[in-house]
Write a structure and sequence with these properties.
The protein is mainly α. The chain has helices spanning about 1-15, 15-50, 70-110; strands at about 60, 65. A hairpin with a 2-residue loop joins strand 1 (about 60) and strand 2. Helix 2 (about 15-50) packs across helix 3 (about 70-110). The protein is elongated and about 100 Å long. The mean pLDDT is about 80.
């Protein structure tokens, strides 16, 4: 049983589980904000612009009422949340791509280019004073380009 709790502690302590927990908490709070936006700003604007209520008369089935207005509000909530999530994911992907490009550029920069003979432009060993290809003298020895 002790091993179970140790494994559980390791699982919960991993970064991606904590990130997911933070995401769920923030997502819940954000959903509340979007619901408030829809109920308190968008629906009253629709009422003002159309000159009527946002309560679309629902279909009454014996014993229950199908509320189209509530459904439309839920669709608006979903579309707003989906748009924001799309924008966030797109931004994170762009940031990841930029970071990957920067890392790749730094790795290439760190890999020193092989020295080149100034006469024939062939690669030579670092420190060579003569080119093995053309026999030209390399003053000061061949140095890698930074």
């Amino acid at each position: 049983m002790s091993k179970f709790f140790t494994e559980f502690k390791e699982f919960v302590s991993r970064g991606n589980v904590m990130d997911m927990a933070v995401g769920v908490i923030i997502g819940g709070a954000f959903t509340g904000i979007v619901t408030s936006l829809t109920d308190n700003i968008i629906n009253p604007l629709i009422t003002f612009l159309t000159g009527g209520g946002t309560e679309i008369s629902g279909l009454v089935v014996p014993g229950t009422k199908i509320d189209f207005g509530a459904f439309i509000s839920s669709v608006i909530n979903f579309l707003i949340v989906a748009l924001i999530v799309f924008i966030l994911v797109k931004s994170v992907n762009r940031l990841s791509e930029a970071t990957a490009k920067l890392t790749h550029a730094q790795e290439q920069k760190e890999e020193a280019a092989a020295p080149v003979c100034p006469h024939c432009l062939e690669e030579v060993k670092a420190g060579a004073t003569r080119c093995p290809h053309c026999g030209g003298e390399i003053p000061g020895g061949a140095r890698a380009k930074a």
